[in-house]
Amino acid sequence: MLRASLTRSSSYSALLRRTMSTIQAKPFKLALVQLGGLSEDKTKNLEIAAAGVKEAVSQGKVDLVVLPEIFNSPYAVTAFRKYSEPIPNDLPAQAGSLESESTKALSQMAKENKIWLIGGSIPEIESDTDHIYNTCTVYNPDGDLVVKHRKVHLFDIDIPGKQTFKESETLTGGNTLNTFETPFGKIGLGICYDIRFPEMAMIAARQGVVAMIYPSAFNTTTGPIYWTLLQRARAVDNQIFVAMCSPARHPGASYQAYGHSSVVAPNGDVLAEADEHPTIVYADIDTQLLASTRSGLPVTVQRRFDVYPNVADGN
Ligand SMILES: O=C(O)CCC(=O)C(=O)O
Protein backbone atom coordinates (compact mmCIF):
# COMPACT_ATOMS: atom_id res chain seq x y z
CA MET A 1 0.00 0.00 0.00
CA LEU A 2 2.73 2.42 1.08
CA ARG A 3 4.80 1.35 -1.86
CA ALA A 4 1.86 1.92 -4.27
CA SER A 5 1.22 5.41 -2.97
CA LEU A 6 4.93 6.29 -3.10
CA THR A 7 5.09 5.10 -6.69
CA ARG A 8 2.03 7.10 -7.57
CA SER A 9 3.26 10.30 -5.90
CA SER A 10 6.70 10.02 -7.52
CA SER A 11 5.07 9.50 -10.91
CA TYR A 12 2.97 12.61 -10.24
CA SER A 13 6.14 14.59 -9.56
CA ALA A 14 7.78 13.30 -12.73
CA LEU A 15 4.68 14.20 -14.72
CA LEU A 16 4.49 17.57 -13.03
CA ARG A 17 8.17 18.26 -13.76
CA ARG A 18 7.53 17.39 -17.39
CA THR A 19 4.47 19.63 -17.69
CA MET A 20 6.16 22.49 -15.82
CA SER A 21 9.21 22.28 -18.09
CA THR A 22 6.93 23.13 -21.03
CA ILE A 23 5.86 26.38 -19.34
CA GLN A 24 8.34 29.12 -20.20
CA ALA A 25 7.72 31.82 -17.63
CA LYS A 26 9.61 34.44 -15.69
CA PRO A 27 8.54 36.95 -13.06
CA PHE A 28 6.81 40.07 -14.32
CA LYS A 29 4.96 43.10 -13.09
CA LEU A 30 1.29 43.54 -13.92
CA ALA A 31 -0.72 46.77 -13.69
CA LEU A 32 -4.52 46.99 -13.94
CA VAL A 33 -5.70 50.50 -14.73
CA GLN A 34 -9.13 51.06 -13.15
CA LEU A 35 -10.16 54.04 -15.28
CA GLY A 36 -12.41 56.76 -13.91
CA GLY A 37 -14.13 59.73 -15.56
CA LEU A 38 -15.19 57.84 -18.72
CA SER A 39 -17.98 59.47 -20.70
CA GLU A 40 -19.73 59.34 -24.08
CA ASP A 41 -16.75 61.07 -25.71
CA LYS A 42 -14.64 58.35 -27.34
CA THR A 43 -11.63 60.54 -28.01
CA LYS A 44 -11.60 61.75 -24.42
CA ASN A 45 -11.92 58.18 -23.13
CA LEU A 46 -8.87 57.21 -25.19
CA GLU A 47 -6.97 60.17 -23.73
CA ILE A 48 -7.96 59.08 -20.21
CA ALA A 49 -6.73 55.57 -21.00
CA ALA A 50 -3.44 56.93 -22.39
CA ALA A 51 -2.93 58.99 -19.21
CA GLY A 52 -3.71 55.92 -17.09
CA VAL A 53 -1.19 53.75 -18.93
CA LYS A 54 1.44 56.48 -18.61
CA GLU A 55 0.75 56.78 -14.89
CA ALA A 56 1.03 52.99 -14.50
CA VAL A 57 4.53 52.90 -15.96
CA SER A 58 5.68 56.02 -14.11
CA GLN A 59 5.75 54.03 -10.85
CA GLY A 60 8.67 51.81 -11.94
CA LYS A 61 9.12 48.91 -14.28
CA VAL A 62 5.85 47.41 -15.47
CA ASP A 63 5.73 44.69 -18.12
CA LEU A 64 2.02 44.20 -18.80
CA VAL A 65 -0.73 46.81 -18.47
CA VAL A 66 -4.45 46.01 -18.64
CA LEU A 67 -7.44 48.29 -19.35
CA PRO A 68 -11.13 47.57 -18.62
CA GLU A 69 -13.97 46.23 -20.76
CA ILE A 70 -15.69 48.67 -23.21
CA PHE A 71 -13.77 51.68 -21.93
CA ASN A 72 -14.06 53.81 -25.09
CA SER A 73 -17.87 53.66 -25.31
CA PRO A 74 -20.79 53.69 -22.87
CA TYR A 75 -21.50 50.13 -21.73
CA ALA A 76 -24.96 50.05 -23.34
CA VAL A 77 -26.39 47.78 -26.03
CA THR A 78 -27.65 50.85 -27.90
CA ALA A 79 -24.13 52.33 -28.09
CA PHE A 80 -22.08 49.39 -29.36
CA ARG A 81 -22.81 49.84 -33.09
CA LYS A 82 -22.28 53.59 -33.02
CA TYR A 83 -18.88 53.25 -31.31
CA SER A 84 -17.74 50.19 -33.26
CA GLU A 85 -14.58 50.15 -35.38
CA PRO A 86 -13.06 47.63 -37.77
CA ILE A 87 -10.16 45.58 -36.40
CA PRO A 88 -7.97 43.49 -38.71
CA ASN A 89 -8.58 39.74 -38.81
CA ASP A 90 -5.10 38.91 -40.11
CA LEU A 91 -2.84 39.15 -37.08
CA PRO A 92 -0.23 40.14 -36.10
CA ALA A 93 -0.79 43.56 -37.68
CA GLN A 94 2.03 46.09 -37.64
CA ALA A 95 1.56 49.29 -35.67
CA GLY A 96 1.75 51.43 -38.83
CA SER A 97 -1.02 49.47 -40.56
CA LEU A 98 -3.70 50.11 -37.92
CA GLU A 99 -6.43 52.45 -39.08
CA SER A 100 -9.23 52.80 -36.57
CA GLU A 101 -9.10 55.51 -33.89
CA SER A 102 -8.98 53.19 -30.90
CA THR A 103 -6.54 50.60 -32.27
CA LYS A 104 -4.19 53.39 -33.34
CA ALA A 105 -4.39 55.02 -29.90
CA LEU A 106 -3.87 51.71 -28.07
CA SER A 107 -0.94 50.79 -30.29
CA GLN A 108 0.66 54.14 -29.51
CA MET A 109 0.16 53.62 -25.75
CA ALA A 110 2.01 50.30 -25.96
CA LYS A 111 4.80 51.68 -28.14
CA GLU A 112 5.37 54.93 -26.26
CA ASN A 113 5.55 53.18 -22.92
CA LYS A 114 7.36 50.05 -24.20
CA ILE A 115 4.92 47.68 -22.55
CA TRP A 116 2.66 44.77 -23.43
CA LEU A 117 -0.86 46.16 -23.41
CA ILE A 118 -4.15 44.29 -23.04
CA GLY A 119 -6.27 47.12 -24.40
CA GLY A 120 -9.44 46.38 -22.43
CA SER A 121 -12.23 45.80 -24.92
CA ILE A 122 -13.90 47.95 -27.56
CA PRO A 123 -16.89 47.43 -29.84
CA GLU A 124 -15.71 45.94 -33.14
CA ILE A 125 -17.58 45.88 -36.45
CA GLU A 126 -16.77 43.18 -38.98
CA SER A 127 -17.56 44.69 -42.37
CA ASP A 128 -18.12 41.38 -44.24
CA THR A 129 -20.86 40.24 -41.85
CA ASP A 130 -21.94 43.54 -40.26
CA HIS A 131 -21.61 41.75 -36.90
CA ILE A 132 -20.65 43.71 -33.80
CA TYR A 133 -18.35 42.10 -31.24
CA ASN A 134 -17.03 43.02 -27.80
CA THR A 135 -13.33 42.67 -28.61
CA CYS A 136 -10.11 42.76 -26.62
CA THR A 137 -6.97 43.72 -28.55
CA VAL A 138 -3.40 43.08 -27.38
CA TYR A 139 -0.26 45.03 -28.40
CA ASN A 140 3.43 44.28 -28.03
CA PRO A 141 5.98 46.94 -26.97
CA ASP A 142 6.46 47.90 -30.66
CA GLY A 143 2.75 48.70 -30.86
CA ASP A 144 1.93 45.75 -33.13
CA LEU A 145 -1.51 44.22 -32.65
CA VAL A 146 -0.68 40.60 -31.84
CA VAL A 147 -4.04 39.01 -31.03
CA LYS A 148 -7.72 39.82 -30.52
CA HIS A 149 -10.30 38.07 -28.41
CA ARG A 150 -14.02 38.46 -29.14
CA LYS A 151 -16.12 37.93 -26.02
CA VAL A 152 -17.38 34.39 -26.42
CA HIS A 153 -20.20 34.34 -23.85
CA LEU A 154 -22.59 37.27 -24.13
CA PHE A 155 -23.83 38.76 -20.87
CA ASP A 156 -27.60 38.34 -20.82
CA ILE A 157 -28.88 38.96 -17.32
CA ASP A 158 -32.40 39.53 -16.06
CA ILE A 159 -32.70 39.89 -12.31
CA PRO A 160 -35.97 41.86 -12.01
CA GLY A 161 -35.63 45.14 -10.14
CA LYS A 162 -31.87 44.76 -9.96
CA GLN A 163 -30.05 44.17 -13.21
CA THR A 164 -31.27 43.63 -16.75
CA PHE A 165 -28.84 43.69 -19.65
CA LYS A 166 -28.85 41.74 -22.90
CA GLU A 167 -25.63 41.97 -24.87
CA SER A 168 -27.04 39.52 -27.42
CA GLU A 169 -29.54 42.20 -28.59
CA THR A 170 -26.74 43.85 -30.55
CA LEU A 171 -23.59 41.76 -30.17
CA THR A 172 -22.44 38.49 -31.69
CA GLY A 173 -20.38 36.08 -29.62
CA GLY A 174 -16.84 35.25 -30.70
CA ASN A 175 -16.02 31.67 -31.57
CA THR A 176 -12.35 31.32 -30.74
CA LEU A 177 -10.26 30.94 -27.60
CA ASN A 178 -7.16 33.13 -27.52
CA THR A 179 -3.79 33.22 -25.85
CA PHE A 180 -0.60 35.13 -26.66
CA GLU A 181 3.10 34.59 -26.03
CA THR A 182 5.29 37.13 -24.22
CA PRO A 183 8.89 36.91 -22.99
CA PHE A 184 7.46 36.30 -19.49
CA GLY A 185 5.05 33.53 -20.48
CA LYS A 186 1.83 32.70 -22.27
CA ILE A 187 -1.26 34.69 -21.28
CA GLY A 188 -4.90 33.64 -21.79
CA LEU A 189 -7.71 36.06 -22.57
CA GLY A 190 -11.37 36.29 -21.63
CA ILE A 191 -13.79 39.17 -21.24
CA CYS A 192 -15.87 39.62 -18.07
CA TYR A 193 -18.78 37.13 -18.24
CA ASP A 194 -16.38 34.67 -19.95
CA ILE A 195 -14.96 34.02 -16.46
CA ARG A 196 -18.17 32.17 -15.53
CA PHE A 197 -17.34 29.42 -18.02
CA PRO A 198 -14.59 27.31 -16.47
CA GLU A 199 -13.84 25.39 -19.67
CA MET A 200 -12.16 28.45 -21.20
CA ALA A 201 -9.67 28.88 -18.37
CA MET A 202 -9.11 25.13 -18.13
CA ILE A 203 -8.23 24.80 -21.80
CA ALA A 204 -5.88 27.79 -21.62
CA ALA A 205 -4.23 26.37 -18.49
CA ARG A 206 -3.70 23.04 -20.23
CA GLN A 207 -2.04 24.99 -23.06
CA GLY A 208 0.42 26.36 -20.50
CA VAL A 209 -0.77 29.88 -19.64
CA VAL A 210 0.67 31.62 -16.60
CA ALA A 211 -2.42 33.77 -16.17
CA MET A 212 -5.95 34.30 -17.43
CA ILE A 213 -6.68 38.01 -17.74
CA TYR A 214 -10.21 39.36 -18.14
CA PRO A 215 -10.95 43.01 -19.01
CA SER A 216 -14.27 43.35 -17.21
CA ALA A 217 -17.13 45.52 -15.98
CA PHE A 218 -19.20 43.63 -13.42
CA ASN A 219 -22.10 45.50 -11.83
CA THR A 220 -23.16 46.30 -8.28
CA THR A 221 -25.68 43.39 -8.18
CA THR A 222 -23.44 40.47 -9.16
CA GLY A 223 -20.07 42.05 -8.30
CA PRO A 224 -20.28 41.75 -4.49
CA ILE A 225 -21.33 38.09 -4.71
CA TYR A 226 -19.30 36.67 -7.57
CA TRP A 227 -16.35 38.91 -8.54
CA THR A 228 -13.76 37.55 -6.13
CA LEU A 229 -15.32 34.10 -5.89
CA LEU A 230 -15.04 33.52 -9.65
CA GLN A 231 -11.44 34.70 -9.84
CA ARG A 232 -10.41 32.53 -6.93
CA ALA A 233 -12.29 29.57 -8.40
CA ARG A 234 -10.62 29.84 -11.82
CA ALA A 235 -7.22 30.32 -10.15
CA VAL A 236 -7.61 27.32 -7.84
CA ASP A 237 -9.19 25.07 -10.50
CA ASN A 238 -6.21 25.55 -12.74
CA GLN A 239 -3.40 26.70 -10.43
CA ILE A 240 -2.75 29.81 -12.50
CA PHE A 241 -2.83 33.56 -11.86
CA VAL A 242 -6.14 35.30 -12.62
CA ALA A 243 -6.76 39.03 -12.99
CA MET A 244 -9.80 41.17 -13.75
CA CYS A 245 -9.63 44.87 -14.62
CA SER A 246 -12.78 47.00 -14.20
CA PRO A 247 -13.63 50.65 -14.75
CA ALA A 248 -14.15 52.65 -11.57
CA ARG A 249 -17.70 53.20 -10.31
CA HIS A 250 -19.28 56.16 -12.07
CA PRO A 251 -22.25 57.67 -10.19
CA GLY A 252 -23.71 59.39 -13.32
CA ALA A 253 -23.52 56.42 -15.69
CA SER A 254 -26.45 54.21 -16.74
CA TYR A 255 -24.36 51.11 -15.91
CA GLN A 256 -22.60 51.04 -12.55
CA ALA A 257 -19.36 49.10 -12.79
CA TYR A 258 -18.32 47.26 -9.65
CA GLY A 259 -14.66 48.34 -9.66
CA HIS A 260 -12.45 46.14 -7.44
CA SER A 261 -9.87 45.28 -10.11
CA SER A 262 -7.84 42.44 -8.66
CA VAL A 263 -5.18 39.79 -9.05
CA VAL A 264 -5.37 36.28 -7.60
CA ALA A 265 -2.49 33.80 -7.14
CA PRO A 266 -2.52 30.11 -8.19
CA ASN A 267 -3.36 29.08 -4.60
CA GLY A 268 -6.37 31.42 -4.48
CA ASP A 269 -4.75 34.22 -2.45
CA VAL A 270 -5.97 37.68 -3.47
CA LEU A 271 -2.67 39.48 -4.14
CA ALA A 272 -4.14 42.93 -4.77
CA GLU A 273 -7.59 44.46 -4.96
CA ALA A 274 -8.86 47.99 -5.58
CA ASP A 275 -11.93 49.62 -4.08
CA GLU A 276 -14.48 51.25 -6.43
CA HIS A 277 -12.51 54.45 -7.11
CA PRO A 278 -10.13 55.25 -10.00
CA THR A 279 -6.77 53.67 -9.23
CA ILE A 280 -4.04 51.37 -10.50
CA VAL A 281 -3.56 47.90 -9.06
CA TYR A 282 -0.03 46.48 -9.25
CA ALA A 283 1.07 42.90 -8.70
CA ASP A 284 4.43 41.17 -8.91
CA ILE A 285 3.75 37.89 -10.63
CA ASP A 286 6.10 35.34 -9.10
CA THR A 287 5.95 32.55 -11.63
CA GLN A 288 7.65 30.15 -9.17
CA LEU A 289 4.27 29.97 -7.48
CA LEU A 290 2.96 27.95 -10.42
CA ALA A 291 5.40 25.14 -9.65
CA SER A 292 5.21 25.32 -5.87
CA THR A 293 1.39 25.34 -5.80
CA ARG A 294 1.23 22.45 -8.25
CA SER A 295 3.80 20.31 -6.49
CA GLY A 296 1.98 20.66 -3.15
CA LEU A 297 -1.39 19.74 -4.66
CA PRO A 298 -0.80 18.05 -8.02
CA VAL A 299 -4.37 18.51 -9.32
CA THR A 300 -3.18 19.64 -12.75
CA VAL A 301 -1.70 16.19 -13.38
CA GLN A 302 -4.34 14.17 -11.52
CA ARG A 303 -7.19 14.89 -13.91
CA ARG A 304 -8.96 11.72 -14.99
CA PHE A 305 -10.12 12.38 -18.52
CA ASP A 306 -10.47 8.61 -18.84
CA VAL A 307 -13.29 8.75 -16.27
CA TYR A 308 -15.12 11.99 -17.06
CA PRO A 309 -18.12 11.85 -19.36
CA ASN A 310 -18.15 13.71 -22.63
CA VAL A 311 -18.77 17.21 -21.26
CA ALA A 312 -20.63 18.56 -24.28
CA ASP A 313 -23.07 15.64 -24.52
CA GLY A 314 -23.41 14.93 -20.81
CA ASN A 315 -22.96 11.25 -21.65
O1 LIG B 1 -21.23 37.79 -14.86
C1 LIG B 1 -21.58 38.81 -14.29
O2 LIG B 1 -22.17 38.81 -13.22
C2 LIG B 1 -21.28 40.14 -14.88
C3 LIG B 1 -20.81 40.06 -16.29
C4 LIG B 1 -20.70 41.36 -16.95
O3 LIG B 1 -20.91 42.39 -16.38
C5 LIG B 1 -20.24 41.42 -18.35
O4 LIG B 1 -20.00 40.40 -18.97
O5 LIG B 1 -20.12 42.54 -18.85
Number of domains: 1
CATH level 4 superfamily: Carbon-nitrogen hydrolase
Strand content: 15-25%
| SS summary, helix count | 7
Low-confidence residue ranges: 1-6
- In the CATH scheme, the class would be Alpha Beta
The number of strands is: 15
CATH topology: Nitrilase/N-carbamoyl-D-aminoacid amidohydrolase
Structural class: alpha/beta
**Overall pLDDT, averaged?**
93
Distance between the termini: 34 Å
Helix content: 25-40%
**How do the SSEs run, as a string of H and E?**
HEHEHHEEEEEEEEHEHEEEEH
The CATH architecture is 4-Layer Sandwich
Largest sheet at a glance? 7 strands, mixed
Hetero compounds: 2-oxoglutaric acid
How would you sum up the global shape? Answer: globular
- Rounded radius of gyration (Å): 20 Å
Keywords: Hydrolase
GO molecular function: omega-amidase activity
Family: Belongs to the carbon-nitrogen hydrolase superfamily. NIT1/NIT2 family.
GO biological process, one term: asparagine metabolic process
Annotation keywords:
315 residues, alpha/beta, Nitrilase/N-carbamoyl-D-aminoacid amidohydrolase, 6-stranded mixed sheet, 7 helices, disordered N terminus, binds 2-oxoglutaric acid, UPF0012_CS, Nit1/2_C-N_Hydrolase, omega-amidase activity, hydrolase
